[in-house]
Write the structure tokens for this entry.
Amino acid sequence: MPLTGIQIYKLLPQTNCKACGFPTCLAFAMKLAAKQVELAACPDVSEEAKAQLADAAEPPIRLITLKADGRAISVGNETVLFRHEKRFVNKPGIFLRVRDASPAQEIASVVAAADAYSVSYVGIDLTLDGFAVEAVSGVPATFAAAIRAVRGVSQRPLILAALDPSVMAAGLQAIDGETPLIYGADVTNWQGMAALAVQHRAPLAVIADTLDELTALTTNLKEAGVHDLVLAPRTQGLSDWLTLSTQIRRLALRKNFRPLGYPLLLFPGSPLEPVQESVLAAQAIAKYAGFVVLDQFSPGSLYPLLVLRENLYTDPQKPIQVQPGVYELNNPGEHDPVLVTTNFSITYFSVANEVESSGLPAWLLVTDAEGMSVLTAWAAGKFDAERIAKAVRQFGLADKVATRRVVIPGHVAVLSGELEEELPDWTVFVGPREAVDLPRYMTQVLQATR
């Protein structure tokens, strides 16, 4: 049974030192009981108390990490049902499945193309996380050869899928020293799979049709020494997955039901069509998969899934930001203008993309507005004449430009007079309200003032 806040408090040093970030040990104990902090935050807790508090300190969703050649992906460790409660922590891994019945050259070709896929989204590189190799042949040597074909072109983490322990053993031997996910253990093979998971120190996926079966299997596997588990319930379609995944998440978080406190895995592709695969994968990313394994590699369908994942797993209280500084667009010279914006990623990329695509040179001054957009930052007092002038001096723009022209966004035209006082040696221009109008403004207004 999980400990209550008062029970935890009695085991803490009760010094109220505030080193944990809370005003009292009681406040920290209450947060620890609610799974909202980690015991490591307390510097003075005794070893004896740590042992007694292990259950209370363990996260409700176990952290699972796959590793390969210096690359790793971690899932789990979640503490909330809904993103607005706190935030989601570890993004679900998106994998691509290949089957060992395909020729090695074909496997390598598909994997190489998927491995090379990378697209920049507001300064973040979006890629696949790894590959799943399925043993449909049932032949150990064929399975191992398929894994080696994948390893010949990609070093991303792997999921190995085989229900025969002898086949799985051959696959694990092919990547000895790595930490793949073993898929999987069911009522017929769990003892053999457990032995392999212990031997290779690899997490093990548990396959079952019902919550009762999952609970029984995870309990048996934990007693067999396998602590890193992933749940792979068999589901049919959108409604079934949504119901089951939500039940598992609620039981783990709200009831602290340890046998189901593990990340979830879904293969959304078979026997669905590609479009249906994307829909089910999108739902699984939101509710509540730790691993999603696709059958189809298509940039057109993969990109929205990666963007959805990125949006869901950012901190809703902390906007995506870029580094404040001066960015050179189209090789600007000393007579080119200085455009000003905030360090909110979407704002930055909107301005930068419009100017870069126009071919017009400019200096882009990005001020520190704590990741807020222009209007929001201005309203919050984070984007004003004093801050803009400070950034101009901080980044040495006076040494970079001879024709000192600074352009502020049209939405904050009210700052122009104050900025002229802060920068008396500069000419202040009020630019357009929207980034899309910048090229025309630069051509019609700024070039005439050079």
In short: The chain has three domains: 5-57, 64-312, 325-449. The first helix runs from residue 5 to 11. The two ends are 74 Å apart (CA to CA). The chain has a mean pLDDT of 91.
